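tokens incoming
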């Protein structure tokens, strides 16, 4: 489904350019539960910005479901992102003056889905993440773990092809982290959601089915390759 071939990424710095990602090649198939591990500054965010169709300034080939995404115009590239990727962030990125239900509904509102269907799907998806009945709460009244569940609900409500979670347990204590990882595992096993989790926490790295390790912008190991 996701196929990266010799991806190189450079950032402009002053007069020169710095080489951040070096010849990164790997595939992710539908239904996989993949971790990307690496130290701070190793290039993980740079890589997932490319995988999640946020950044298209790179060298190499990214094919998605068989099509090279570099041929898409900006509008199509944006709809590719909106239709296929759900994002979960370390700091949840919830809108504080909107209720839980309104936060979760956002992707469907942007997609023009009718209110009745939105309400139904919001309730279903909140049940799915263990927050049935929390529709009217404001995010600040929830614990960190509950806020992360809301952001996972928002990420999955549009039925994306894959999820990208960037340090999703980074702001949580170890017990809550384990609960959030259990939820990701459940979504992967039961709903067959393809999940890519970025982390520098070895405990999180141990729980994925396949672990890619990045060092200084290079892919140095992939447990999915025999
Ligand atoms: N917009 C930018 N312009 C120039 N350099 C950048 C830019 N964004 C990131 N970098 C550099 O690219 C390298 C990789 O950064 P990146 O954020 O991808 O690492 P990371 O592995 O995600 O780190 P962290 O775990 O701290 O989030 C770093 O050296 C960083 O300073």
């Amino acid at each position: 489904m996701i196929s990266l071939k010799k991806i190189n990424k450079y950032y402009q710095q002053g007069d020169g350019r710095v080489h951040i990602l070096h010849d990164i090649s790997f595939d992710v198939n539908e239904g996989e539960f993949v971790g990307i591990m690496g130290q701070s500054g190793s290039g993980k965010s740079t890589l997932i910005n490319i995988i999640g169709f946020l950044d298209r300034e790179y060298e190499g080939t990214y094919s998605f479901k068989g099509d090279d995404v570099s041929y898409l115009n900006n509008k199509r590239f944006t709809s590719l992102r909106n239709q296929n990727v759900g994002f979960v962030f370390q700091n949840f990125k919830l809108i504080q003056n909107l209720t839980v239900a309104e936060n979760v509904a956002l992707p469907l509102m942007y997609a023009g889905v009718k209110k009745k269907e939105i309400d139904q799907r919001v309730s279903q998806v909140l049940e799915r993440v263990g927050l049935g009945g929390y529709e009217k709460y404001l995010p600040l009244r929830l614990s960190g773990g509950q806020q992360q569940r809301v952001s996972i609900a928002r990420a999955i409500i549009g039925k994306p092809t894959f999820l990208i979670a960037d340090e999703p347990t980074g702001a949580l204590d170890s017990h809550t982290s384990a609960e959030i990882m259990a939820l990701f595992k459940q979504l992967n096993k039961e709903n067959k959601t393809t999940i890519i989790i970025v982390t520098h926490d070895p405990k999180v790295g141990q729980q994925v089915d396949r672990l890619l390790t990045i060092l200084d912008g290079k892919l140095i190991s992939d447990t999915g390759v025999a």
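note: The chain is about 35% helix and 30% strand.
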